[in-house]
Amino acid sequence: MRIVLFLWAWLLSVGALAAPGDPATLDRGTWPEQLKNPTLFDVASRAEILTFARGLLASEALDEAALAQRLGLRTVNMDAVNRLRGRLWQRLFNGYDHAQQSCDQDASFCFLVEDVPTLREQAGKFQLGEESYYIKWAEPSRTFHAQYLDELLRKAALFPQTGSEIDRFGDYERNGDEMNDRLFLLSFDSAANLQPDNTDWLAEYLRKSNLSGTFFVLGKDVQARLAEHSVASLQATFSQQCVGVQGWEFRSHSHWQDWQDSVRRSADLVKGKLPENYVPLFRPPDGQRRSDAQAFFNAQGLQVALWDIDAQDGAGKLKGSQSAQRVLTLMLLWRHGVINFNMKQDAVKTALPWLITQTAQSGIGWEDCQDAFR
């Protein structure tokens, strides 16, 4: 009975959270420890997993009408929502199972979790006492995960009528689910705005850091660069990096009549001018693409490259520091995945260096872009 009452208290509290569309972020300064070794990464990871799992469990008490009201929607696709919940529980358990391997070195947030049912049980009971060393983090983290869960549930509720990265249409679409524990891939979207373009800065920063990322470029942007600079200059910009495509221009590829030409033209241009950097990947703008496109992408030798950790730095949604702290929190939560930054927002110039510095001793790895999605 106490657990039931606690869950309903949670549900009532999240009704006072930010309006739909406000991206979640968390001040990592509320966490009292630096991620200065792999064990401390695991401690923070277990804490974030349990907090998110508690919110996920509470959300299951909502019926369809209550969920629609919470998400600010008229209707919800409950089948898609339930599929999402199933995937989330499995991924949370897999992550916690990895994170609990270091419990013999630091027992903080360690509970007996052997499968999804025991994770659900522990999540339902999870709560910090007022004297906890981590108490200043507890409420900000709860708020973050409630907002973030709503982001995910809202996308699932609208899928597939509104396409997004929340689910895949087939095996030709890839995200970060299959990556190894503690391994992350950096990726960069173009987005619609033309300025500022931080591509050159990002590529140079990654090279100096001995890192690589996948840049998803627009065909018209590459064409504009070539009108002012040589092919050699373009190749120098993307040296040691990977380049996929995001279409000829940044617009939804779900209802655009010329979407196939958009993909084909941009892929042919990049493959021809950047043969050493080109990777056969298409990232749909805003995740919007057709559900019946598998035959086309197979014929083109392309995969659809989605993501599962969104920096929410597009269109000035979050400042650089907020974006970076959001990404780090989601890295702790999911423990692997594809990170999506916006190369045309200045926030990335603050967020990326901070993120690299904060995780330098945490035991994570950065996937080589040439090895991703194979």
From TrEMBL:
Residues 178-304 form the NodB homology domain. The keyword Membrane does not apply. Pfam families: Polysacc_deac_1. This is Polysaccharide deacetylase family protein. PANTHER family: GLYCOSYL TRANSFERASE-RELATED. It comes from Pseudomonas ekonensis. CDD domains: CE4_NodB_like_6s_7s. Keywords: Signal. InterPro entries: NODB_dom, Polysacc_deacetylase_ArnD. Residues 1-18 form the signal peptide.
